[in-house]
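To: structure subgroup
Subject: Chain for Friday's discussion

All,

I'm putting the inputs and outputs inline so they're searchable in the archive.
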Amino acid sequence: MSTGYQPGRRNFLKLSAFTGGGLILGFSWGTAEAESGGIMNASGFAGNISFNNYLSIATDGAITIMSPNPELGQNIMTSFPMIVAEELDADWTKVKAVQAPLDKAFDRQLTGGSGAVPHSWKRLRQAGATAREMLITAAAKRWNVPASEISTMKGIVMHEKTGSTATYGDLAEDASNLPVPGEVKLKDVKDFKLIGTAVRNLENKKIITGKAGFGLDFYREGMVYATIQRPPAFGSKIKSFDATAAKGMPGIVDVVKIGNNIAVVGNSTWEVFKAKKVLKIDYESDVKPESTADHNAKFTEMMNSDKATVRRKDGNVDVAFASASKIIRNEYQCPFVAHSPMEPMNFFAHVREDGIELVGPTQTPASARTAVSKLLSVPEDKITVNITRLGGGFGRRLKFDYVVEAAELSSIIKKPVKLIWTREDDTMGGSYRPSVRYRFEAALDAQGNLIGYKLRGVGINVGNSTREDNFPSGAVENLLIDSVDYQSPITTGAWRAPITNFLAFAEQSFIDEVAKAAGKDPFTFRNELLEKAKTSPVGAVKYNPNRFQSVMKEVKERSQWGQKKGVFQGFSVYFSHASYVAQVAEVAMVSGKPVVKKVYAACDCGVVINKSGAEQQVKGGIVDGYGHAMYGKLSFKDGIPEQNNFHNYRLVRMKEIPDVETFFIDNGIDPTGLGEPALPPTGGAVANAIYKATGSRLKNQPFIDEPLFSKPPVKTKVKQTGPLS
């Protein structure tokens, strides 16, 4: 039997056996405390110690850590080892990470919410510092010198007075016999040598040579392949089906009904994909199929509903608006969008009498295991989950429907099976970003001060479509934020930077409009509100005004705001996932149409682990944010998505990607999120720049559907530079 995947933890220990022994150190991800040390030798794991995960040092100096979080491009397979190596004073060329299988010992073994590094920061530092101290202690005993006189550098332990030196590999076995220290001192941020530098992704070579091991790459001898036909319309169900023609096609093993779907099983993907096309299925529905026109009508109804849920209320908005010198109102709407990861959903499952094996790309392996356990009534300790590299996720793989499908199918056909979705399945199969509409209202006094602010969010399957405590809450005396939700059979889920991915565009576009009505520069207007949040807050302030202002100042200076000729600049700033990102977009008019040429981004995400990886995260977020604001749209007719593949579901193309320049605020704060925070501000910065260039306010996404892009714009007399342009 052959398998194209890394072995489980215990097999890994045997395959990674060191010649002559070495140090393996367990440390708890729940408490950041190290557990017992032990020896790794040629016979495998020697010693009867319990560990959750480990940091190991081989006698040749190679350093390995198990990485619990799924890797989907956020670069944790490089940033995690960098954190350990920094505190360990390791030779970076000898450090690597290995994807850990699912283990209940990890208290957050998932990827989502930009939380991997913030959660693991202190735990990984503790692991590296603990190992370093044990190596120093081992050297002190060997050389009979005080540990306080010993230093380390790049995997070498040194005693300057005697000239003694030893590699970490030389000392690893001695260190493994020492008790683990209860407390160790961590480095001061100013002393970091590796963290904060640009380090090449450790997985690059594997990725470009096809050896990275994505879910689609996994192969198990004897497995079959499967694809599933789902109802084309949301809310419909199978009435009857005829699989005679499909069963008669070459390579087809079986056709079975699972739930409200039909699965085709065969010897290859090509054969099952072809056979699926000849299935004859009749559907029926107990509910009226929904179209985009129905959703638009529902939004209008919800906007005027008297049954909204109040999310935050400060002061009295009725009095404020009644006394206002000027009132500004606007509505903004976004469509459903698909996640569209390059790797479609797929998973391997083998349901046996003695347990279940699951292998594939998932952002939430523990939740997937629990769901399979409940469905098939198999204890979780009888289910193993090995995580491959993910070919993108963007929130789609937080859901585990495709994992459950694979497990259920394997239990029915009694075979190991690899379930693979097609691109059409991925686009039409649901779990979209919800469609949302916002109404903003602002009241200004005679001096241009914001004295009242109202926001209503209405959405489809989104719950609370607002972020009621985000800016400008806390800076306005009279404020009301509420929401209304509609439950639809169209399935939705988290999409990169949930809620804020569109809310930020709407809010930042509206605030720019209010600033103009107040006769103030966009930076000045926001700064005045932030100063108020600092000096005379109204209710709770759940963001840091100083961090807001620091990224604003940085991006204003870096972009030379208001000083350039030939381009029109738009500004946006947002707080999400505990990080702050300010952006300035630059637009030029090309053949009568606005074209985004460049985006400047200033980010405060605390300590930057890997500058190269961080820059890629920010650039990726900006490209994602711009591309979907400009082109992303999924519409419906009678419950069926009208887009099914990239020929009619538009994504941004390489030639359309603007130049991006990224800057980070160096403040020494522990790392905060970075995978998502750069996306939300992008739409607003671009829309505000386009307004400067054309005089047209973009209020709906995708921008490409707006009249501005379908016909030559009417150019108004606006300045190219200056505080009010």
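Points worth raising on Friday:
The chain has three domains: 9-203, 215-286+345-420, 507-710.
Residues 1-20, 34-52, 716-725 have pLDDT under 50 and may be disordered.

D.
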